[in-house]
Amino acid sequence: MxxxxxxxxxxxxxxxxxxxxxxxxxxVILQENSGVRGCVPEKHxxxxxxxxxxxxxxxxxxxxIPRGDRGNGWxxxxxxxxxxxxxxxxxxxxxxxxxxxxxxxxxxxxxxxVPSFAIESAIVEYAERNYWYxxxxxxxxxxxxxxIKAFRGGVIPDPFDNQNNLxxxxxxxxxxxxxxxxxxxxxxxxxxxxxxxxxRERIYELLENR
Length: 210
Known about the structure:
about 210 residues, single chain, 7 helices, 3-stranded antiparallel β-sheet
């Protein structure tokens, strides 16, 4: 990867982002907004109504939670499995949890009515199968592109039952994808601005939907 001074240089190669240089200011500002420094706390924890069940054969406890679709459907989930998978994927990946927090913050600010479980599943699926840069700006940007692709395709598979689509019946997915595309475009636009205070304000505007 070539290093050079100057603005943001980026080339799409085979679907992978090759970034020769990016503005570290954006990574710092994203870090501030990820909750690490307490600048933007989560508005609320992920609390949803749920029914609790126990499998007749395995004895495993699982829950059904709202799908979040227009038909008011429900999906089954096993939170302990989700947490185990999340911990395994996050291990050794710098800023993985910060990327997840930023995505959920955008979900809240832009009123993206996709289940948090679906968004988290898409992030985990990406991190399991793709290179993790360890740079908050690059990883956040690529994860947003992953969510855009999922929204436009209308599919986020259930990690424990790939026949189950976690966003089946969810409306406005194309509109949500457009919002995420505008966030990426806004970050790219200000990456080489000379004044850091202006970059900071622009990133805040993008994350807060102002």
